[in-house]
Amino acid sequence: xxxxxxxxxxxxxxxxxxxxxxxxxxxxxxxxxxxxxxxxxxxxxxxxxxxxxxxxxxxxxxxxxxxxxxxxxxxxxxxxxxxxxxxxxxxxxxxxxxxxxxxxxxxxxxxxxxxxxxxxxxxxxxxxxxxxxxxxxxxxxxxxxxxxxxxxxxxxxxxxxxxxxxxxxxxxxxxxxxxxxxxxxxxxxxxxxxxxxxxxxxxxxxxxxxxx
Length: 212
What we know:
Elements: E1 14-15, E2 18-19, H1 29-32, H2 48-59, E3 69-74, E4 84-88, E5 93-98, E6 129-139, E7 142-149, E8 163-167, H3 172-178, E9 188-191, H4 195-201, E10 207-211
Parallel strand pairs: 3-10, 8-9
Antiparallel strand pairs: 1-2, 3-4, 4-5, 6-7, 6-10, 7-8
């Protein structure tokens, strides 16, 4: 999917309340060489989320040191959809679309739709806003990556241990059969056979943006 090209023109554009300014992009040859994580077609339920993510990239430019690609979680879509998108900023394209879980506290009836979001410890809910990817570590879910919340609505993400990890309850067969995947405790959980590539694509110092 091609990004909205208005985000790349030289003149400033207002989007989501933030002023876009011209930016320098990295070479896109590495992104072109990547194999897709999924055969599913890329797309987003809410095209405006791409503009919001790019605005967040500008807003948090002092913290986001690696600006070659960003991750976008579109929680307006059901969990059975490939609603997590990795965007190559230089070429303006979604290069990968994946399944991602939301928190139990965001979907207490297990409907597959995230309806509530929280920054509170113990809520088991997903948080919205801008996250900076942090250090990689090995925990109970195996290879994982810490996240730092950059906005008021997700400022406790690190303290809540909201991270990127793989999980058995995120599965494409389940998504096709039930129209949804399992729920996390607020973490961004991916299919276990995809997590290595996700963590390689979203290394430390990159933006993960979640919207509903």
